[in-house]
Write a structure and sequence with these properties.
single chain; mainly beta; Porin; three-stranded antiparallel β-sheet; 3% helix; 49% strand; globular
Length: 410
Amino acid sequence: MKKLLMTSVALGGLALAATPAHAEIELEVGGYFKGYMAWVDQDEATDFSTNDFDMIRDTEIHFGGETTLDNGLTVGAHFETAADGDDGLGIDESYVYFSGDWGRLNVGTEDEAAYLLQVAAPSADSNIDGLRQFVQPVNYEAMTGGFSGTFIDPSGVGDVGIGLDYDQDIIGKSDNLTYLSPVINGFQGGVTFAPDFGPASSFGGIGIDHTDTAPSDSLSDSDEVFGRGYSIAARYEGEFNNVELIFGGGWSLVELEDKRTAAELAALSAGDFAYTDDMTAWNLGLDVGVGPFGIGVNYSQTDRGDIVEGTATAATTDVSDKEKVLVVGADYTTGPFKVGASWYKNDNTLGVKDLDTDRYSGGVTYEYGPGMSFRGSIFYVDHDNTDTALGTSKSSLDATGIVLGTHIEF
């Protein structure tokens, strides 16, 4: 990481137990580049042809630095900005932190405890089939309350926003306080409190994290407000007789402050949506390593607020269900090479009832330098929609692809 002297940042008022002297922090610049060439053969809309080849990438620039005061308190700051062409230089994360023998406290827009301590299964390429999907090779159309029956609009994650991953981050980028305990005998815990989440529609509803999209923006009223958010998690890492073991889990809740009455729900116009309950999520994960071999599994459930749709008969139809994701992965490492494979199974994908997904991936990673790797993988993804009420033109959609690229940390 190259050091760039940005400015002297006065943080004396932030250090809870610091001396009156201002703490000067020199910010360093870093980040990453994840760039790929992809070939994808996929189902298409009628009279529409998608590109077989595409270039996909995800790039961020990070600024951060810290200082340790005479009393032992460490004070730091961290900022992340998206840096891909048409994304401009938008802020992704922005927070300060305090740490010591007692643990660490994050203050600002950082991920919740359940994500920071989540156990990920091995993968073919973690950028594509890992805990959080950073690049999406398949060309999707944005979902609008159901599965459209087509793949169109070759934009990728961040534009149309359909990500197939299993990161537990329903609190999203809301301002929050997150405490992480020190690691004691391999155990670490964490807790997050977000005082104000915001209107449901502004965070996407079905799929409120950075990769998902809303069922509709046409709420008949704007009285749905998701308020306080909470997250708690625990993780253990240890080794027994040359067997490495990691396991952990987390639970999150975002409260729906203003729920509609039965009369208000009955008054929903056809095609309008309403949230009727809190958002919740939980996950459990386990990884086992024996020498160069690793195998792991993660299971998670996400309830995105029980979304109903108005009908022409003054009734409502439940269009959401708990998203249930099972991920199993394995890898083998020898020298600079790693071979990995994973299976991703998602029932009620993105919370859309009866939209089920399976993805199979396999790939190779080669470390050609510190923080630098070449990556190649193949995948097959299949979507099945068993709810004919959604009006889809196909009950099954699939895509097969080959992805080659590089990941550089700087």
